[in-house]
Amino acid sequence: MQTKLKQRIALGVLFFQSGLCFSSWASRIPDIKNSFLFSDSEFGTLLLIRPLGSLLGLPLAGWVVDRYGSKYSAAIGILGFSVSLVLLGIAPAVAWLAVSLLLFGLSSNLTSISINAQALAVQKSYGRTIMSSFHGLWSLAGFCGASVGAAAISLGLERVTHFLLIMGTVFLFVFLSLPHLNPDQETKSKRLSFAKPDPQLLRLGLIAFCGMLCEGCMLDWSGVYFKQVLHAEQGWVTAGFMAYMGSMAAGRFVSDRFANRYGSTRMIQVNGLLICSGLLLAVIVPSFPMAILGFILVGAGTSSVIPLTYTQVGKNQTLSTGLALALVSTIGYFGFLLGPPLIGFIADWLSLRVSFTVVALVGISITLLVLLRAQQNPVKPALPTQR
């Protein structure tokens, strides 16, 4: 029991540090956009580089985890994640910013595949679903990172100073956590290989695609929405992002209990409805209070789509955990790839409010996908609670 607890705490720290890195970047997105005087479409195109890096790195990340183990892959990934964050902070030109975003995407997904493989191993030792709680720590870190970002902006702290402080905390906690992570027990592959995926993994990937598209748009554009549509003051630009991340964190801490009680299929159906209704509320009633409420609903909706999907990935028998996670994440990360530029192009063509309406339709498609495939059980109920 003591070993399991140490593994859970150590892994939770890594999830938190990963979320802190990402939210630190997201909190300074409006600042970076203004610094380089990007238009919406130009910035949307630039944001495409991060998920592109993530997508390109996913097959490699799956092989690295499978070959060298998730324990050390996680440490290397998150250290690289924090270093690339600093590179973003010191970028003097667009080319530097683009390369840094590519590295940011690559390292973020090595981190993601590694820590989720670790989470599946720890979850197996507990005999019940605890995946969402790890993702809850990621989202809680997002809320904390957004708060720190808002404070840094209000105090006039330079981006590079802000990001250097984050990198320092990451290095410290990674080295404290590394000895307590779960040792890998899977057979390691010696070469990068590609296998024909089974239909179950493809279905999970499609659900992940919709969930990640919604997440990516909220993470990258929530601050811009509050600045350009709601005309929020500088200190309140990150309020929507904070509301979204706080709600997502809270939802992930309670979703394991609801999934065990009501089943994953029903949970994901409700999640799609929450995403759609929250975005439509923010679009139809573009006031500060209604937008905050809408973003809270979206956060609750996106909270457990990905954790429950990853839990099902761990049950597959055709691929190793690292490769199966990489496959589903590759399909899902097309959502991150398409989302940010989609928002920018539609915003330039029509408006940012219309862009968010399109994302609302993607949200409701999550519910429709689960309903249409209910007889095939695309998402099985979560593991029963161990008694």
**Weakly predicted, low-confidence segments:** 187-194, 378-387
Overall outline: globular
Amino- and carboxy-terminal Cα gap: 15 Å
The helix content is over 70%
How is the biggest beta sheet arranged?
none
Going by CATH, the architecture would be Up-down Bundle
Query: Any idea how many domains?
Result: 1
Our Rg estimate from Cα atoms comes to 19 Å
> What name does CATH use for the topology?
Growth Hormone, Chain: A
For CATH, the homologous superfamily is named as MFS general substrate transporter like domains
SSE succession: HHHHHHHHHHHHHHH
Q: What is the number of helices? A: 15
Instruction: Provide mean pLDDT, rounded.
Output: 83
Structural class: mainly alpha
CATH class group:
Mainly Alpha
Number of distinct beta strands: 0
Strand % is under 5%
What does this protein structure show overall?
- The structure is a single chain.
- This protein has 387 residues and is an all-alpha fold.
- The protein has a single domain (2-178, 197-376), classed as Up-down Bundle (Growth Hormone, Chain: A).
- 79% of the residues lie in helices and 0% in strands.
- It has 15 helices and no strands.
- The chain has helices at residues 2-27, 29-35, 40-47, 49-68, 70-89, 94-126, 131-154, 159-177, 199-228, 239-262, 264-284, 288-302, 305-313, 321-349, 352-372.
- α9 runs antiparallel to α15.
- The chain is globular, with a radius of gyration of 19 Å.
- It starts with a helix and ends in a 15-residue tail after the last helix.
- Mean pLDDT is 83; it is low at 187-194 and 378-387.
